[in-house]
Design goal:
The complex is a heterodimer of chains A (306) and B (221).
Chain A lengths: L2 H21 L1 H32 L8 E5 L5 H12 L4 E7 L1 H12 L2 H5 L9 E6 L6 H12 L4 E6 L2 H42 L1 H9 L4 H44 L11 H29 L4
Helix pairs in contact in A: 1-9, 2-7, 2-9, 7-9, 7-10, 9-10
Chain B lengths: L1 E9 L5 E10 L4 E5 L6 H8 L7 E6 L2 E2 L8 H5 L2 E4 L11 H12 L3 H14 L15 H13 L5 E5 L7 H16 L3 E5 L3 H4 L5 E6 L2 E6 L2
Parallel strand pairs in B: 3-8, 3-9, 6-7, 7-8
Antiparallel strand pairs in B: 1-2, 1-4, 4-5, 9-10
Helix pairs in contact in B: 3-4, 3-5, 4-5
The chains are: A alpha+beta (306), B alpha/beta (221).
């Protein structure tokens, strides 16, 4: 058989498979819907994480250091330390919060005004809020700055509020793993769903397969149309998953945008990336092929003319 | 062409269909297998087409001992045999042309060649013009002739038929038998299993009569 005839034969089988799917569109759509929903789940999680990562990406750099001075540091000494810090290359800005200002703020926001009045003197130290320069905004850079400031005289404690950012990053990391695992499990599920549909297809067309075998058709020949069907189920399911996630994003992007605006953030929900969409379609098709291959091979082998 | 040597066939349910059958059919011969139902006619055809394997003994088809043919090689082996069934075994959801073309598609014959050979085969059985019809739109006799066209379209050297006239009235049955005779006239080895003794009396072909799983009578050619 020459190459052109080979491709013509495949195209013919492919069109034949499409025809059979079109002949029973409800059943085929049901399978595609199940595949689509199974794939939409991890895809939704992925898009959520992608947006969460994008929304929090700037936070690490914007971190300030809180420098608590010892109680013995006078206001003049505080100003001197601030000036010294400001001259450093890795410091962008230093803001002085005197003990008196801190107490006033605390009184205003905490609601402990009465309790504070009972205190003989101000328990709060002078504080410097140090903003690292952009170049030093890496975790390592801020850590180096932190230890340098901590070593200075009259500095009691330097607090870097990265703990919760680290926790957030770890949480996002964990969720990434969960998405991966869910994707793997549901991927296996998709192969099984398609496999089961193909199994029923094979059993429904048992007599046809028998005839093919009787006139000298190999198992591979009988299997071919089912592989195309499996591919179509997978690909169709992938398209459906993308549509479902697209609808979900469209439905919540308005409220998310308004919420972000209320927080003064320009953040907008981003959709499924082109690369991700391509991956979903390819993965869905491959899973459909795999499921149909396994089911069709097994059940066609079991059919023998009698 | 075909040789049975002390062939036994016992089915899993314990029924012994063949109990030591031996005979020989030469290339280009036309042979009728007869006997009451259950005498082993179908079993013999199934052993020839490798639908079943002998329990004991040896079946030789075209100089090949079928016991040595591995399952993988069965499709290739079947392509040199045309088989006609009592119930036609046509694909009801495909047009006549596709049904007849199936063996050629399986063998990988180019499309243009397929169309030509399908028309030639339909012409031989007198059904030219029914290409686009569905099998169920045809009469039983016509359906059987579509089955015969499919069996001969790949030009096999051996044609076997299991009760091909079982569902037909005498006139149609005679017509079908004459069709087989015509293929035999051009050199195809033909084996027809039938219980219709009156019908085959009208043909001077050789007859193997089976009874109790054995060859009871063998008329000379």
């Amino acid at each position: 058989m020459n190459l052109g005839a080979y491709f013509a034969r495949h195209a013919q089988t492919f069109v034949g498979s499409l025809g059979r799917i079109a002949a029973a569109p409800i059943a085929a759509l049901m399978t595609m819907a199940v595949v689509g929903i199974a794939l939409a789940l991890p895809l939704c999680l992925h898009v959520f994480l992608q947006n969460a990562s994008a929304a929090t990406a700037g936070w690490n750099e914007a971190l300030d250091l809180s420098v608590y001075l010892t109680k013995s540091a006078t206001d003049a000494r505080t100003q001197a330390i601030a000036a010294q810090l400001k001259s450093r290359a890795d410091v962008a800005d230093v803001r002085v919060v005197t003990a008196a200002e801190a107490l006033a703020q605390f009184r205003q926001y905490s609601g402990f005004g009465g309790a504070l009045d009972a205190l003989k003197d101000n328990p709060l130290p002078n504080t410097l809020i140090v903003t690292p320069a952009i170049a030093a905004g890496t975790p390592a850079g801020t850590a180096a700055l932190q230890s340098a400031i901590a070593a200075m005289p009259d500095v009691d404690k330097v607090q870097l509020d990265t703990e919760w950012v680290k926790r957030l990053a770890a949480m996002l990391d964990l969720l990434h793993r969960v998405v991966l695992l869910a994707g793997l499990l549901l991927g296996v599920g998709v192969a099984l769903i398609v496999g089961n549909t193909i199994r029923l297809d094979v059993l429904n067309r048992r007599s046809e397969i028998e005839v093919m075998k009787l006139v000298g058709g190999t198992d591979g020949f009988a299997r071919r149309p089912f592989l195309y069907s499996g591919f179509c189920y997978g690909f169709g399911g992938g398209v459906l998953a993308l549509v479902l996630v697209g609808i979900a994003i469209a439905a919540i992007s308005g409220p998310v945008g308004r919420l972000a605006t209320l927080y003064g953030s320009p953040f907008r929900l981003s959709g499924v990336h082109v690369g991700t969409a391509a991956f979903v379609l390819i993965a869905a098709s491959v899973l459909g092929l795999l499921g149909s291959w396994l089911a069709a091979s097994r059940h066609i082998r079991a059919i023998n003319p009698s | 062409m075909i040789r049975f040597d002390q062939v036994h066939k016992r089915y899993p349910n314990g029924r012994e269909a063949l109990a030591g059958v031996s005979f020989k059919i030469e290339r280009g011969e036309m042979t009728f297998l007869t006997g009451h139902s259950g005498a082993g006619k179908s079993s013999i055809l199934k052993l020839i087409a490798l639908i079943e394997r002998p329990t004991r003994g040896q079946v030789t088809v075209g100089e090949r001992n079928t016991n040595t043919i591995k399952p993988r090689a069965i499709p290739q082996f079947r392509r040199q045999i045309g088989v006609v069934f009592q119930d036609h075994k046509l694909l009801a959801d495909r047009p006549v042309a596709d049904n007849v073309a199936l063996p050629l598609i399986i063998a990988g014959v180019p499309r243009r060649e397929i169309d030509k050979r399908v028309r030639a085969a339909l012409d031989q059985v007198g059904l030219l013009g029914t290409e686009r019809s569905r099998p169920l739109e045809l009469s039983t006799g016509e359906q059987q002739r579509v089955g015969i066209a499919r069996a001969v379209v790949a030009k096999p050297s051996l044609l076997i038929a299991d009760e091909p006239t079982g569902n037909l009235d005498p006139d149609l049955a005679l017509e079908i038998m004459r069709l087989f005779k015509r293929f035999n006239d051009v050199g195809v080895t033909v084996i027809v299993a039938t219980h219709d003794v009156h019908l085959i009396d009208q043909f001077g072909a050789r007859r193997i009569v089976l009874g109790e799983g054995r060859v009871a009578v063998e008329t000379p050619r």
